[in-house]
Amino acid sequence: MRVNVNDFFSEKEWNQIMSFSDQLETPFQLVLEDIVRQKYIELCENIPFAKIYYAVKANPASEIITLLNTLGSNFDVASVYELRKLLSLGVKAERLSCGNTIKKTADIKEFYDAGIRLFVTDSESDLRNIAKAAPGSKIFVRLLTEGLMTADWPLSRKFGCNPDMAYDLLVLAKKLDLDPYGISFHVGSQQRDIAAWDNAIAKVKYLFDWVTEEDIKLKCINMGGGFPAHYIEKTNSIDVYAKEITRYLQEDFGDDLPEIIVEPGRSLVADAGVLVTETVLIARKSRTALERWVYTDVGKFNGMMETLNESIKYPLYTTKKGLAEKCILAGPTCDSVDTLYEDYQYELPLNLAIGDRLYWLSTGAYTSSYSAVEFNGFPPLKTYVI
After folding, report:
1. Are 275 and 359 in contact (CB under 8 A)?
2. Using N-to-C axis directions, what is the helix angle for 62-71 and 33-46, rounded to 10°?
3. Where does a domain end: 266, 291, 323?
4. Smaller CB count within 10 Å for the chain: N or C?
């Protein structure tokens, strides 16, 4: 598949990328700040009734956090390390929530002492830890959701609980003098089936009604993330997602909507990023082999973790032209797992040479934040926000 960069960037943006890239040694990530800004504003315009909590794990670059803070975003933090970074950048604790259901009691206390009062849980032991270390806090119980087959990067199996357990936890939260505030769910990252939200919202409505038996009135739905980026496979635009999800909410809740929270990560930053890499080696495995192996200086361990099981297929661009041939793409480390794409074979020009650059588009999310510290001695992926 030949990629046309004009489908992803304006001519001005691409010239800016190329001009900046020429000065740097690969590998590195570039993120265009203006695109992050556009994506945030676009989401606000399409879901004006929702509070946005940026999922910091998608890309924790200080420049991105500072930009979104200036634009008025809230933030979903998954660890005390993210918390400390956000506080150091001047983000107020009242604009933070703790969305990770797996956390130490000491960390819950640090969240609480910093001023966070929104916590997500999906188990009794975690809920009791919150009651002990963060008394009186607002509690979201996270539901298990369907969508494993239609999300490129599914999340649901590890997190969440069934509705009967969610009911028990909400009742227990009240008994523990916590505030049973709402229901949380996540339909899977890069979710292509918008109907996944319909199923999840229907479960939420059921629970909203069910817990009234215990004199509990839930006030909020945290719909997590799932909005898409622009990769190889086609997705609907954000306005289509917003229109359909709004319709689902209105069908179940009418005009009396509860408070709505969304936690975008990928959809805000992915399309703003380019991963610039270099061709390290090109080889064939036998005299008669029809397949070329193309090795780059970025692999699974320094930015391309989401190629695991070939889940995310990034658009790939090279300035080389001419007759192309399918190839197997792999990273630079001495680990056979560090093969990026073998079943899905990209076409690259036959005149591609060692030292040529490859540009991975839509790589602003879950690349630098997945980069290993020092596997095979490779340093973490550098990020430049321009």
Report:
1. yes
2. 40
3. 266
4. N
